[in-house]
Predict the structure.
Amino acid sequence: MTETLDIKITKTNKSRLEETDFSNLVFGRTFTDHMLVADYIDGDWKNFEIVPYGHILVSPAISSLHYGQSFFEGIKAYKHTDGKVSIFRPDKNAARFNKSAERLCMPTLPEDVFLQSLAAVVDIDRDWVPAQPGHSLYIRPFMFATDQFLGVQPSKNYKYMVLLCPVGPYFSKPLRVKVETYYTRAAEGGMGYAKSSGNYGGSMLPARKATEEGFDQLIWTDAKEHKYVEEMGAANVMFVLDGKLVTPLAQNTILDGVTRDTVITLAREMGVPVEERKVAVAEIIEGAKNGKLTDAFGAGTAATIAPVGSISLNGEEYTLIDPKEREFSQKVLRQLDAIRYGNVPDTHGWNYLV
Ligand SMILES: *Cc1c(COP(=O)(O)O)cnc(C)c1O
């Protein structure tokens, strides 16, 4: 750890904590009392401040609005049974934050500055970290270009901010999923591996079409041939096929998810063989037909594990086994929760205590 980050703190004089209904949280709608703001000016990060959550004033000409120099991260903090608060693997997000920044010609943020900024704002709002089972505090760091300039070129100035949202358990009814064979999320050489805002704007139309057809989610395939599985919505996709955990390699077109990495690590410890490789749509469909596909789920910070109930390809629907009977994902989820809520020793050093 380098020197302590200098953060100016202005606390709210009226907390909204008391009036917040923690039993009816909608993901991403409820914000805590404070947020963190910092500026990148003249080649340096400065003005780190924690202020009451609220609107910010920006010019309508900022280049992030026009050309999409903007990206984000998603992380969760948990309240342990003994009252401690920890953030789950934020060092991984710090590294990915900088990968996204580099892809978008934006400035990086030193890893320890990222970690200290998260810890500082979570600490101020630590009473907002819900203690109920399955609940957590979602942390949303993001960066955007702030030059007032309508020319297409990298901005010189940026804002880095962190917002916090208490969130409840993710609704995990088995998802009806469609294999997308027309639209693509990311192409080779593109920015699929970055958590770039534009990737999500582009995914909304295909997602809406899938919803209109009665599906909950779609599985993205490769841009060239639509033959290989890539991701599921804004989550990584993982399968248990013939007793092995199988998932696409996280490179180039695929976001390198922290949840994905965590599941892989736990699988290896459980003695489950792991294959990170190209995954053909055809072998997944074959596995669904012959029963060798015993588990399928999306993996991401928001949902953790989102079970796939059925997979549809070109109008043909294949129903998978009942999620309650899936040994692997059930076991991984239990283990992961035990670690995040501090109920078992954190042997990997995944919990960053605040
Ligand atoms: C955020 C995200 C994921 C999941 O990453 P986590 O680090 O596990 O939250 C996977 N795919 C996409 C496209 C994402 O945006």
